[in-house]
Amino acid sequence: MSQGDRETGEPFKRLFFAVDCTPTQRRAIAQWRSELGMDNGRPVPSANFHLTLMFLGTAGTAQLPAILAAAAGVKVPGEPLTVELDRLEVWRRAKALVLAPSQTPVALRQLVYALQQALLPLGFAEAPREYRPHLTLFRDFHGPVPEALEAAQFSLRARHFTLFESRRGRYWPLAHWPLHRD
């Protein structure tokens, strides 16, 4: 949605698709992060930990039914998806400290591509760049990759993907779809 669309008065939402973390995963990652002893940057609230699949940005609420229908038709992997978050990286341009996988599972790339293709007819297109899965730990981060006492080894096992709304610094799930269909 463009700035001009906002001026029409149509209600809008900031939306993205993601693989959510379980409460247990959130606690483990937050504990590991606290052991880094960082005071550089702003820590992302553990309630917001997720692995973004596709950022839609601002969308008019009238588009929501079409977005939901498009997501429902996405070809899914057929089984739960596991992503090993085992690398700590600094993304300088984004000013972020992130957890990322050393290897991106093929099923994850296929899911992202299927989402992109499903949303393309609705006018949603990501910038043409390689998908880089990650979980953001800190924003406004400056400095080198910190030394961790214990290596990052988090298995993110997802049974569904979720459409989230970003509102006032919190992420609200709007709908989710299983990664396997019976």
Automatic annotation (TrEMBL):
Catalytic residues (positions): H50 (proton donor), H134 (proton acceptor)
HAMAP family: RNA_CPDase
Placement of sequence motif HXTX 1: 50-53
Domain of life: Bacteria
Keywords associated with the record: Hydrolase, Ligase
NCBIfam families for this protein: 2_5_ligase
Lineage of producing organism: Bacteria, Pseudomonadati, Pseudomonadota, Gammaproteobacteria, Pseudomonadales
Motif HXTX 2: chain residues: 134-137
All residue ranges annotated as the Phosphoesterase HXTX domain in the record: 21-92, 101-170
GO molecular function: 2',3'-cyclic-nucleotide 3'-phosphodiesterase activity; ligase activity; RNA 2',3'-cyclic 3'-phosphodiesterase activity
UniProt cross-references to InterPro entries, sorted A to Z: Cyclic_Pdiesterase (IPR009097), Phosphoesterase_HXTX (IPR014051), RNA_CPDase (IPR004175)
EC number(s) given by UniProt: 3.1.4.58
Record's keyword annotation contains Oxidoreductase: no
Protein family according to the UniProt entry: Belongs to the 2H phosphoesterase superfamily. ThpR family.
Top-rank EC class of the record's enzyme: hydrolase
Pfam families: LigT_PEase (PF02834)
Record protein name field: RNA 2',3'-cyclic phosphodiesterase
Matches recorded under PANTHER family: RNA 2',3'-CYCLIC PHOSPHODIESTERASE
Annotated function: Hydrolyzes RNA 2',3'-cyclic phosphodiester to an RNA 2'-phosphomonoester.
Reaction it catalyzes: a 3'-end 2',3'-cyclophospho-ribonucleotide-RNA + H2O = a 3'-end 2'-phospho-ribonucleotide-RNA + H(+)
